[in-house]
Design a protein that fits this description.
327 residues; four-stranded parallel β-sheet; 46% helix; globular; Rossmann fold
Length: 327
């Protein structure tokens, strides 16, 4: 079994840190989703945070740990497809720190604007997240900036506060579906479940167009892919984190692949059932639950709606019954 990234005391402290800035997000059992799935379905609404996504929790805890430890860097630099890139400047502004964010060329227009609105200096580089990450690491060394990774114990501990809320509110869920980007969300959920001594089955979800974590889970070691072309940009990972994979291997029941068509269908279903907007990655968990609904008839299950930050034009396409294409 993988060594826990954090203790229960550290998680409870993170809840205090996060709670200074935002309230707990709700979890609701929607009756139309019950009819659609044939089970009692609880959605954890991480689209209701100050940045519209769960990543804000990680940034708040990471910056608290960094700055309370006496470190005050010249500035921060990180790479993202969007939500992590909002989280870090959102949190860093509380400490007067400048943040540079690297995004791939062609990244979400509205996520880019949101990152800049939180105060980030935005640089476009590369074809995908992994190329942007390499450039961010190079610039960190060149310019003497603190590089903020996408996966770090204090980021995961902060993110795990959503899991602590969810599992305390619904401790009898049999299964929870959660998307996998770089792994902080699922690893926070697995670690929290284990710290609370629960038996809830946790299922990771990836895109069929970005299957690196599914392939890695099946092989028991890191497997990289050449591309990760999905409109669900929050799960567009080519190179898994070895640390995250170790936790997923020890604590996830399985990793399910969903297509972009299935993700778009889940976005429409979530909007119809709850009138909440889910971005592609935010709907991936519900897409996997729909795909596996025969497993859960009459049971009590959960899915994490990790974020609602999708460009207006793409969401309009989805509501028209289309699936956005990625070149």
């Amino acid at each position: 079994m993988a060594k826990p990234l954090f203790t229960l005391a550290e998680l409870e402290h993170a809840r205090v840190v996060v709670g200074r800035t935002m309230s707990s997000t709700p979890q609701y059992a929607w009756p139309l989703s019950r009819e659609r799935v044939g089970a009692e379905v609880w959605l954890k609404h991480e689209n209701h945070t100050p940045i519209g996504a769960f990543k804000v929790r990680g940034g708040l805890n990471y910056l608290d740990a960094l700055c309370s430890g006496g470190k005050h860097p010249n500035g921060l630099i990180t790479a993202t497809r969007g939500n992590h890139g909002q989280s870090i400047p959102f949190a860093a502004s509380r400490y007067g720190l400048d943040v540079t964010v690297l995004v791939p060329v062609g990244n979400s227009v509205e996520k880019n604007k949101a990152m800049q609105a939180w105060g980030a200096k935005l640089i476009e580089h590369g074809e995908d997240f992994d190329e942007a990450k390499l450039e961010a690491a190079r610039l960190a060394e060149l310019d003497g900036l603190e590089f903020v990774p996408a996966f770090h114990p204090m980021l995961v501990c902060g993110v795990a506060t959503y899991a602590h809320e969810f599992l305390n509110a619904c401790d009898d869920l049999e299964t929870i579906y959660v998307p996998i980007g770089m792994g902080s969300g699922i690893c926070g959920l697995i670690t929290t479940r284990d710290l609370l001594g629960l038996k809830t089955e946790i299922v990771g979800v990836v895109s069929t167009h970005a299957p690196a974590y599914a392939l890695s889970f099946e092989c028991g070691q890191v497997v990289e892919t050449d591309t990760a072309k999905t409109f669900a940009d929050g799960v567009a990972c080519r190179v898994p984190s070895p640390d995250a994979l170790e936790i997923i291997l020890s604590g996830a029941a399985r990793v399910v692949r969903v297509s972009d068509d299935e993700v778009a269908g889940a976005m429409r279903a979530i909007y119809a059932d709850t009138h909440n907007i889910a971005e592609g990655a935010g709907a991936a968990a519900f897409a996997a639950l729909l795909k596996e609904k025969e497993r859960h008839q009459g049971r009590k299950v959960g899915a994490v709606l990790t974020g609602g930050n999708i460009d207006t034009t793409l969401f309009a396409q989805v509501l028209r019954g289309e699936t956005p294409l990625v070149s």
